[in-house]
Structures are given as structure tokens and as C-alpha cells.
Amino acid sequence: MKSKIIYPIQPFFVMNTEEYYKHPVRDSIGAHFYRFRTKSRLKKENGAVPDGTADIIFRCDANHPQAILAGGVNSKEQNIFEADTDYFGIRLLPGALEQLCVISGGELGDHLVDFSDVSRQPAAIEKICTQHSFENQIALFLNAFPDFTERQAKTRQEEICLAILDCLYRFEGNCTMSRLENELCYSRQHLSRVFKGFTGMEIKQLSMILRFQSSLHKLNQGDGGSLASLSAAKGYYDQAHFQKEFLKFSGITPAHYQALIREYQYQKRIKLV
Asked: Model-level pTM?
């Protein structure tokens, strides 16, 4: 059965721009391309939330072209963007880095590094940064990294890692180590060691992040029902557990987040391309 993917989102990126252009990609090592221009004054609510991914972020300035590789965060982080600036980015799925970079997820961790130092195609950075068309930026990136559209394991360890990811996505993070052992026929110690080395994350850590991201999707769509029903549906012990974990990952409570979604008309800001 094909894995269900919880395509990762960064809600505060969207809230700090009038329009967030998004181009989803399927059956690849990425989740989506995006482009936006930050407002002249950034909102108090900004920064990255845990999503289990790494981002390649291009600062689209002809005078100072730059790209950074941002590792996945474990809790709410401060904003990394400048006001009144154009950005183009690629959100990568776990385990994708080695097809694009000379660095693994385990080496990157939650750090920020200059993409030109680790990219397999550093010459493409300036071309992408100085291109004004979102569609042309995507084309330039795909031309520089043709393997982007192929999510294939090349080693046995990569096969194991992708199989673990398949289970975690299929159950939206609610997948126990016992289930992983039974489905994949490896000990939890071996699974944990392979996964941490390949992605830089613990299995339990990504499970919690996927559950949080799945909750964000429901809240963003406005169909999560009550917070009590949502917490039960997502496998939290109770609403208090849901609120505590949501606060840890987003910096705000679920109720506050719901209010922001309404205030900023979140879905209307996203423009699919």
C-alpha cells in the first residue's frame, strides 16, 4: 500500500506574507516548493515549528544572493527571515538530503548551514536567487537536481528508513515500536540506530512531530471539531496532553492558534501554482 504522506506545513511563514505561493510535488524527495515576500513588519507570531523536514531557503536578492539549508527544529524557533524580502524555498521530506547535499540528516541536525558549502550544485544558487519567476525558479532547481523527483532507496539502510517512514506516515505518528518491529522484522534497537543515522531524528521524536503536523492540518482546514474531539482523534491521552504538546511545538495554545487562523484568513493567503 502506498504511504500516506502528511505534507509538512509552516503556518507562521504563511501568516507573515500577504500571499504564499505553493507548488506541491508528489512521489519525490520534496513536499513542495514555495515563494513569498515578507511584510515590512513581521508579526509577533513567526518562526519555524517542528515538521520533521529540512528546508533549502533562497534569499532572492540580486545584490546579495544566498541560500541556507535549515535542519528540522525540535521546538518553536525564532524567525530567520528579514522583513520586506523575497524568498524561494523547497521543503524536503525526511531522508532526502544526501540526494542533494554532501551532508546527511544526521550531520545537519537542527542547524543552519550555508547551502553553497554543502550543495552538490552550488553554481545554481545565484541563478535561482536572481530569477523573478516562481515557475522558472522551480525549473532551474529541477534542472540542477534531476534526482529530486526520484524517491528511491539506494542502500539496505535507506530501504529500512523509508519503510519506517511509511509506517509513521500511514498512522500519522501513532505507530508504536512494537508495531514497527512486527511489520519490518527488525529489533527496535536496529531500527532506531538506522533511522537516527539517516535522518538525524529519533523515531519517537518524528512520531510526535507528525501527530502535531496532522493536528495543524485539521485546524487549518477548520474541520477539526472541538479540541477535545481532535485530541482524541489524534491519539493524545487527553486534551491537556494535546495542549501541552501543541504549546511546546508551536509556542501557543491550540485555541490561540485557531484564533490566528481566523484572524489572518490563513487558507486565502495560500496560492497553489
From this structure: 0.92
